[in-house]
TrEMBL record:
Biased composition (Basic and acidic residues): 1-25
Protein name: Reverse transcriptase
Source species: Littorina saxatilis
Annotated spans, Disordered: 1-35
Origin superkingdom: Eukaryota
């Protein structure tokens, strides 16, 4: 947990200026629902290696790759933040492609977890 927080703090320092420029009201970018999930996982892992966003695509929890699905649905390091935003189980599709209200919840989760998008 400590290693994950240290990595998050370093990442926040490196990209803090971009984060400040982006307004929360803009919300997260919306992706097409037709995007193949396998392609998304490949691209996320590729971006981690190419731009060294993380030492490896593996999440700090060590259970699996740090994908949007893992972070939003299963990462044990973010259980508290996830339960605070979504007290009951919520499908990934709703978190990523739902109504404006659902997307605002996703944005709140990302912000409270200290993640950089």
């Amino acid at each position: 947990m400590r290693e994950w927080r240290e990595h998050r703090d370093i990442t926040n320092q490196q990209y803090g200026k971009e984060k400040e420029k982006r307004k929360l009201s803009e919300g997260p970018p919306v992706r097409s629902q037709e995007v193949d999930q396998g392609v998304m996982k490949y691209l996320e892992a590729h971006m981690n290696r190419k731009f060294k966003l993380a030492p490896s695509p593996t999440c700090a929890c060590g259970q699996e790759d740090q994908t949007a699905e893992h972070i939003l649905q299963r990462c044990p390091l973010l259980d508290e933040e996830r339960k605070e935003v979504w007290p009951s189980p919520t499908p990934l599709q709703t978190k990523l492609y739902g109504s404006r209200q659902e997307l605002e919840k996703t944005t709140t989760f990302i912000t409270s977890a200290g993640l950089i998008v």
